[in-house]
């Protein structure tokens, strides 16, 4: 059956009538954004307050060797002033952040825009006193607590560049990011409670800092009050300092193209790269997509379940919502604690209107059964969203019926750390949704589907190939921190003239887009992006491992699981204990999120005569798809494949 023959889900009349953008408006605005990008984005630039208005809008070149991306380049503004100060006159007493802690027994906090202002200013003054100034880097390694948002906004206020490291990363991974960004300060907390367990963040930071310059300082926020070691002169007590700090702090005047943050993300080769986002274009794009994709209206309660350690938390917990004067919910916990009803209990408790989560969470909750949903009143929900990976139609339908009661459009938002905000998504009042389809480009986004090897642009519908974007949008990343050449090579060299997304895609008979997954060596584990190369280098760093190859394989809950083929050093014997040891090793090298799901012993790996590992074959074996191995005649030693298949079948 063709995709378009499936049932589609048009917006209700009421939704279409009340939405910021209905079908006609979408077409009109999209056409305008493509025919006159300068005019379109000049108008959208008014979404934010400028200290000095911009005169130029777009200055972009995707030509290899000369790639540069500038938006609103001569404008000046401050992101924290846009997310806080400009709302104070009209909504100072409105809740900016609802904080829901890990345990439902601890009460939620309601932080008003006035509170947010005072707390952000205090944190900004503390950072300034610690010697942080414009352009300096600050690492944030925090639980999902309001202080994480204060820290981000405080950096933005004084012009420092933050780089958040997800609290699930190990001390080694943290140290690599502190050193890579040459950060002056690490902001952390004593502990991070999640799902009833406490992660010792400060202890991790202590370990990481052993591998960093001794000038790096550490600002420690109290979360649980647990005892931590304390290094005088290096460690600063946030709570003690905040009690004394001034609650006003003049925002720094920033150029539109000054960096706002660096966020490390995995690629297909080498170590994670520091994606750089800047100030003006990013904020315009985050604000606009937040308002339009979720059809956010003044007074709505909006909840994105991501962590601020990922880009979703940057754009859609903090910057987009707060720029729009929204009430944004920050959740410290996990969907299954104390039990699998938690998300829905929180929706009821805070009367959430827009709910945004990852397919992996939905699949996990779906597996627990409907009883966990039944007890919750979900009538406040208006729009549902997903992000991070393709959503399978079964999970989509469950989300639609069981959570949304068939009333709530589902925005399946496709985007990336690199893109700053949504690039493709259905809009709630405009598009007839198809379960699993990212549907339509956002305004100003020009997707093209290319034939992977010839790089020919595939015309007409339906087509399938690799997904590139033909022109810039304001939220696009500007460079890789400290390595512009790598930026050009990664994104602009395979398909000259285009931004290459790394994703495959099909466009159906109706002209709607479906993301088919990564075409490179990046895998998507529970919505978290992971470079197979990173896991491989962690494995080979173990003394007993000679060689390793890592691929993704289909996993019911996680979307993809981490499958490792490991060749041991001569003389080492495979054993269950060694499997456990290697799994723990990877957890300490990278973090629990990189924990291998399966380790298969591989006496040899399939390689070409030039020594290149043929991952295509490894992927097929991991998928149990032995009939589709393709041509193995170019292998140096074709027999290794038979061994691998045999081991796979014996699960050894
Ligand atoms: C995948 C997360 C299908 C995709 C915001 C992309 C998706 C990678 C979707 C980026 C979606 C994200 N449908 N696939 N709605 N959203 N992806 O950088 O492969 O953590 O390239 O950004 O996630 O992951 P990242």
TrEMBL record:
InterPro entries: Ac_CoA_lig, ACAS_N, AMP-bd_C, AMP-bd_C_sf, AMP-binding_CS, AMP-dep_synth/lig_dom, ANL_N_sf
Enzyme Commission identifier(s): 6.2.1.1
Modified residues (N6-acetyllysine): 612
Cofactor(s) recorded in Swiss-Prot or TrEMBL: Mg(2+)
Residue positions binding ATP: 388-390, 412-417, 503, 518, 529
One GO location term (cellular component): cytosol
Alphabetic keyword roster: Acetylation, ATP-binding, Ligase, Magnesium, Metal-binding, Nucleotide-binding
Secreted recorded as keyword: no
Residue ranges occupied by any AMP-binding enzyme C-terminal domain in the UniProt entry: 534-612
Gene3D superfamilies: 3.30.300.30, N-terminal domain of ligase-like (3.40.50.12780)
Molecular functions (GO terms): acetate-CoA ligase activity; AMP binding; ATP binding; metal ion binding
Reactions accelerated catalytically: acetate + ATP + CoA = acetyl-CoA + AMP + diphosphate
UniProt superkingdom: Bacteria
A Pfam family this chain is assigned to: AMP-binding_C
Annotated GO biological process: acetyl-CoA biosynthetic process from acetate
Binding site for CoA: 194-197, 312, 526, 587
SUPFAM superfamilies: Acetyl-CoA synthetase-like (SSF56801)
Function: Catalyzes the conversion of acetate into acetyl-CoA (AcCoA), an essential intermediate at the junction of anabolic and catabolic pathways. AcsA undergoes a two-step reaction. In the first half reaction, AcsA combines acetate with ATP to form acetyl-adenylate (AcAMP) intermediate. In the second half reaction, it can then transfer the acetyl group from AcAMP to the sulfhydryl group of CoA, forming the product AcCoA.
NCBIfam families assigned: Ac_CoA_lig_AcsA (TIGR02188), PRK00174.1 (NF001208)
Homology family: Belongs to the ATP-dependent AMP-binding enzyme family.
Listed name of the protein: Acetyl-coenzyme A synthetase
Record lineage: Bacteria, Pseudomonadati, Pseudomonadota, Alphaproteobacteria, Rhodobacterales
């Amino acid at each position: 059956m063709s995709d378009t023959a499936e049932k589609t889900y048009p917006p209700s009349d009421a939704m279409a009538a009340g939405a910021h953008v209905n079908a006609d408006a979408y077409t009109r605005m999209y056409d305008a954004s493509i025919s006159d990008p300068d005019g379109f984005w000049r108008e959208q630039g008014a979404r934010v307050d400028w200290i000095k208005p911009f005169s130029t809008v777009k200055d972009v070149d995707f030509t290899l060797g000369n790639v540069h991306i500038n938006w609103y380049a001569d404008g000046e503004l401050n992101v924290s002033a846009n997310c806080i100060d400009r709302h104070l006159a009209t909504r100072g007493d409105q809740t900016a952040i609802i904080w829901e802690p890990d345990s439902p027994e601890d009460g939620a906090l309601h932080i008003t825009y006035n509170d947010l202002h005072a707390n952000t200013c205090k944190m900004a003054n503390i950072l300034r006193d610690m010697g942080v100034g414009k352009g300096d880097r600050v690492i944030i390694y925090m639980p999902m607590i309001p202080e994480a948002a204060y820290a981000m906004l405080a950096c933005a206020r004084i012009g420092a560049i933050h780089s958040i490291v997800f609290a699930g990363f190990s001390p080694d991974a943290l140290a690599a990011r502190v050193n890579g960004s040459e950060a002056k300060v690490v902001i952390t907390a004593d502990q991070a409670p999640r799902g009833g367990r406490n992660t010792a963040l400060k202890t991790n930071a202590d370990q990481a800092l052993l591998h960093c310059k001794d000038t790096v300082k550490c600002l420690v926020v109290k979360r649980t009050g647990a005892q931590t070691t304390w290094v005088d002169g290096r460690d600063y007590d946030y709570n003690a300092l905040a009690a004394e700090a001034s609650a006003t702090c003049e925002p720094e005047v920033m150029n539109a193209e000054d960096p706002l943050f660096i966020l490390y993300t995995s690629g297909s080769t080498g170590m994670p790269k520091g994606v750089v986002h800047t100030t003006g274009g990013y904020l315009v794009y985050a604000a606009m997509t937040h308002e339009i994709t979720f059809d956010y209206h003044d007074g709505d309660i909006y909840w994105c379940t991501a962590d601020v350690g990922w880009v979703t938390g940057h754009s859609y917990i903090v910057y987009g919502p707060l720029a729009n004067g929204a009430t944004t919910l920050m959740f410290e916990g996990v969907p299954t604690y104390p039990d699998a009803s938690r998300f829905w209990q929180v929706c009821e408790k805070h009367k959430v209107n827009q709910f945004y989560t990852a397919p992996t969470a939905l699949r996990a909750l779906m597996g627990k059964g409907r009883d966990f949903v039944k007890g919750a009143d979900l009538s406040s929900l208006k729009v549902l969203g997903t992000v991070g990976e393709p959503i399978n139609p079964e999970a989509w339908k469950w989300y639609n019926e069981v959570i949304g009661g068939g009333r709530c459009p589902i925005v399946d938002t496709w985007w990336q750390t690199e893109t700053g905000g949504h690039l493709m998504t259905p809009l709630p009042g405009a598009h007839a949704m198809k379960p699993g389809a990212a549907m339509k480009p956002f305004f100003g986004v020009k997707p093209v589907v290319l034939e992977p090897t010839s790089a020919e642009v595939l015309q007409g519908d339906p087509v399938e190939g690799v997904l590139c974007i033909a022109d810039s949008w304001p939220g696009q990343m500007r460079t890789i921190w400290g390595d512009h050449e790598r930026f050009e090579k990664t994104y602009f060299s395979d398909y000259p003239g285009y931004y290459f997304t790394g994703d495959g895609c099909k466009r159906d008979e109706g002209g709607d887009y479906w993301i088919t997954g990564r075409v490179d060596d990046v895998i998507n584990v529970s919505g978290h992006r992971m470079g197979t190369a990173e896991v491989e280098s962690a494995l080979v760093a173990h003394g007993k491992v000679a060689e390793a190859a890592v691929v993704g394989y289909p996993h019911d809950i996680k979307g993809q699981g981490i499958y490792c083929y490991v060749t041991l050093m001569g003389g080492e014997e495979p054993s269950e204990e060694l499997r456990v040891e290697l799994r723990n090793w990877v957890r300490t090298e990278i973090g629990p999120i990189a924990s291998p799901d399966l380790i298969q012993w591989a006496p040899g790996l399939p390689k070409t005569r030039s020594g290149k590992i043929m991952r295509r074959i490894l992927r097929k074996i991991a998928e149990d798809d032995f009939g589709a191995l393709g041509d193995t005649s170019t292998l140096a030693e074709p027999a290794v494949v038979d061994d691998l298949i045999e081991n796979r079948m014996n699960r050894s």
